[in-house]
Amino acid sequence: MKKFIMMFFMIFSAIVFISCQSKPTEIPTGDNVGSFSSYEQLGDYLKEFYDYNTDVNRWYMSNSEVPLGTPEAGAVEDGVNFDQDEERDYSKTNNQVEGVDEADTILTDGYYIYIISGNKFFMVDAETLDIVYIYYEESMYFEGLYVYEDKIVLLGNYYVYLNYEYPEGDDTEDKTTETGDTVTSDDTVMIVPSYYPIYWNSYYYGTKIVVLDKSDITNVEVSRELMFDESYIASSRMIDGYLYLIMNNYSISYYYEEDSFVPQYMDSVVNGELEDLPVDQIFFMPNDSENFSYLLLASFKVDDDEEASIKAYLGSTYQIYMSAENLYTTVYRFKYDYMNNTYEDKTFILRFAIENNELAYKAFSTIDGMPLNQFSMDEYDGVFRIAVTDYNYSFAGAEYTNTMFLFDATTDDEMTLISSLEGLGKPGERIYAVRFSEETAYVVTFVNTDPLYKLDLSDPVNPAILGEFYEEGVSDYLHVITDNLMIGVGRQAETDEYDRTFFTGVKIALYDTSGDTPTNIETYLVEGEYSYTNVSYNHKYFMSFAPIDEDFTYIAIPVSTYSNNYSRYSQNMFVFKVHHSGDLELVAQLEQTSENYFDSIEKAVMIENYIYTLSYSQIQVFDMDNDFSFVKKVVINETYYYDYPVTEEPVETEKLD
User: Fewer C-beta neighbours within 10 Å, C or N terminus of the chain?
Assistant: First the structure.
């Protein structure tokens, strides 16, 4: 158990690459990758780096936890009934790539609903709403979960705070603490200042993975645990039961300690204690001499006892994209040009191939600009595509350029650039949304109006713009419904007399993408100058469900509405039917039955003809075949915030022409 003083918030960590040498004598650059031959060699390398780079900043910030409420079950009334003779149809999590699962905070298999909330995991019977199992860890914060056959995988970070103890003396004389208490040298007390608070904390932290076995619902057990000391989860994916973890370890980012520079981990199927990662699993790659951290890549099969594959690269990541064949990690770098008084930004891209269910480094590349999010990246037919906005800042102002890059996804050492498509967006516009669909891509740029571009990427050597559609507002998230239909979720916008843009509400638009130029079929506007939807920031809040043998798709979108200078608030889950014939129909506005200002509906899942909505405090069920009437609820957390009154007026929506 170590003591660390670490900052709570870390900004854009660096990517690091180092050349292949037996024992470096300077900070090198190069194109190769290799492992270290001994811990001594790794220590010498890091020591030399920190001697070389003496300008390392160390930031610190205190952190505290707010305890969650106590779970309480309380069904209001009966009414959920399924056909017991048929397999249930249900919604899946919103994954970017088919066959590549992403973690979520609420999942269902049609029979149970699986939920994480803070440091708790709940397993709820979908028919009775009984809470059949709870897993709880006081020092954990769960970020996501997976369900694979009889296994449930919980992903989270742990923070364990350490109390400061009065140091033991060399004699038995009584001593006086800072609070005035007298103790002997045999006593241990926590030192609490009389007048000033402690602004920094000592704690140890890391990533923890818990695998639960639910083969016997009456006796759910922990079947496996993994811990990664001083690491944070950057992202994760699951393919055919193999979990792939992408983590950042910052233990050497801001300082170097000679007795503590090796990543530590614990895999319960091997050992119950933390141990050093073998040195032959620690790799270096080409480097820009900025700073060091570890990029940890781990993979294991969740339903067997094979030892996890764990590798550490001297690097880090921010955004990732993963296909069925490759993992791509990206890191951004901003640099100041003293000669020209300008700022430049670059993105480093690393490709790791999936080989025997393990991740192995293959190639890298560098481009100008930075992607918006994971949807800015895609791989298709051996080609990696990435859309970026290049920000060039100077005293004269900012200049934005938007580009689509296409790389060969099969080359080693260096990712070969095939082509690039420039000129996306008007002057001053940046990318707000991207969506790839095989040989086609859609890109949204925005300043005052929303150009929706349709791109032809069928010939990687000659990508082309097929068409541009302009409308007011902007789409922050694009979702393909069918080959010819796409949903855009974003914000409606207008300009004033000074040509300044302001938003007027949340918009949900249906587009016809069958032609070269996309066209708008219908748009719904949820009015409110300060309205927003979490879908704009996290695609996991967007739910879609296409019932078997039906010609429509349900979508559910949470929208929070503020108006009248924040004096009026309302939150609803808007449920639409997207008819595959080309029609967008609003079928329900679901509200939280308890009027708690801080407790609103965030997500939803669907099972057959029922929709389950999730908030911090409870799960609610509505019957979709009976005008979405309320059926039942169960409380999973007691709310502890003050209940502010919310409006009872219906949220205004407008179907735009």
Answer: C
Cα(635)–Cα(637) distance, integer angstroms = 6
Give dist(CA 612, CA 495) in Å, integer: 39
Max intra-chain CA distance, the chain: 88
Residue finishing a domain among 427, 451, 472: 472
**Cβ atoms 613, 603 nearer than 8 A:** yes
447 contacts: CB under 8 Å, gap ≥ 6: 426, 428, 429, 501
Q: How far apart are CA 524 and CA 541, in angstroms?
A: 18
Asked if 332 and 468 sit in the same domain, the reply is yes
Closest CA to 25 of 63, 59, 52: 52
Q: Return the sign of the alpha-carbon dihedral for residues 389, 393, 396, 397.
A: positive
What pLDDT band is residue 572 in, cutting at 50, 70 and 90? confident
Given this model, what pLDDT does residue 495 score? 72
| Number of domains making up the chain | 3
Q: Is the pLDDT of residue 67 over 60?
A: no
In a domain, 61, yes or no: no
In a domain, 406, yes or no: yes
Nearest Cα to 235, choosing from 406, 95, 362?
A: 95
What is the residue type of 168?
A: E
- What does residue 238 show for φ and ψ, rounded to 5 degrees? -135, 130
**β-pairing verdict for 358-368 and 413-414:** parallel
Both 466 and 506 in one domain: the answer is no
Sequence-separated (6 or more) residues with CB below 8 Å from residue 337: 343, 344
Cβ atoms of 615 and 595 within 8 Å: the answer is no
Helix/strand/coil percent split, the chain, to 5: 5, 50, 45
Q: Do residues 556 and 656 both lie within one domain?
A: yes
CA distance 284 to 325: 23
Which of these ranges, 87-96, 193-202, 274-283, has the smallest mean pLDDT?
A: 193-202
**Could you give the percent of the chain with pLDDT greater than 70?**
76
Task: Decide if 448 is inside a domain.
Answer: yes
Out of 143, 174, 198, a domain closes at: 198
Same domain, 517 and 529: yes
Evaluate whether 424 touches 443 at the Cβ level (below 8 Å): yes
Integer Cα distance of 247 and 263 in angstroms: 11
Q: Looking up tokens 């999730």, which residue turns up?
A: 614
Is residue 188 over pLDDT 60? no
User: DSSP letters along 301-334, please?
Assistant: ETTS-PPPEEEEEE---SEEEE-SSEEEEEEEEE
Task: Say if residue 487 is in the same domain as residue 416.
Answer: no
Q: What is the pTM of this model?
A: 0.83
Coil, strand or helix at 450 = strand
pLDDT at position 504? 79
Residue by residue, DSSP assigns 480-516 as E-SSSEEEEEEEEEEE-TTS-EEEEEEEEEEEE-SSS
Rounded CA separation 604/124 (Å) = 14
- Give the pLDDT confidence score for residue 316 in this predicted structure: 84
- Pairwise CA distance, residues 38 & 259, whole Å: 14
Higher-confidence residue of 487 and 13: namely: 487
Whether 446 and 480 share a structural domain: no
H or E element that contains 426:
none
Q: What is the 3-state secondary structure (H, E, C) of 22-63?
A: CCCCCCCCCCCCEECCCHHHHHHHHHHHHHHCCCCCCCCCCC
Per the domain annotation, does 213 fall within a domain?
Answer: no
Check residue 574 and give its pLDDT.
Answer: 94
Tokens for 526, please give them. 């949820």
